[in-house]
Specification:
Helices cover 69% and strands 0% of the residues. It is rod-shaped and about 95 Å long.
Length: 117
């Protein structure tokens, strides 16, 4: 009778929301663009000049581009993790099915080797 190697159940990857991903990266790039700060921007910058506003706009565009780049990289890794989880789950289920089938085969074979009298 072959020995079955027990495969552990895979651990599901954590999948954050889009807002969580945005905050994860923006918090280190541009605090003005954090969700809790956006509403106060008009008041915070009410006395800025046109030149200052233009510079701030460039800074914000650069921040959004950086967050997009980091998000794309993160989502690519997350996609790989999800694919690995799918494969691990399939292997786990298949292993359990094989183990159950082996139990049934062993029971069937035992009826021939140890017949009831």
């Amino acid at each position: 009778m072959p020995t079955q190697t027990k495969i552990k159940a895979p651990i599901r990857p954590a999948i954050p929301t889009g807002a969580e991903i945005y905050v994860m990266f923006m918090k280190d790039i541009e605090l003005d663009l954090m969700p809790e700060n956006i509403r106060a921007l008009d008041e915070k910058y009410q006395n800025e000049t046109a030149s200052e506003r233009k510079k701030r706009g460039k800074r914000y565009r650069a921040a959004f581009e950086k967050v997009q780049q980091l998000s794309d990289e993160y989502l690519s890794k997350l996609k790989s993790n999800v694919e690995q989880y799918r494969k691990s789950t399939m292997a786990y289920v298949e292993s359990n099915i094989r183990a159950e089938e082996q139990i049934q085969i062993d029971l069937f074979e035992s009826t021939f080797t140890n017949p009831v009298s």
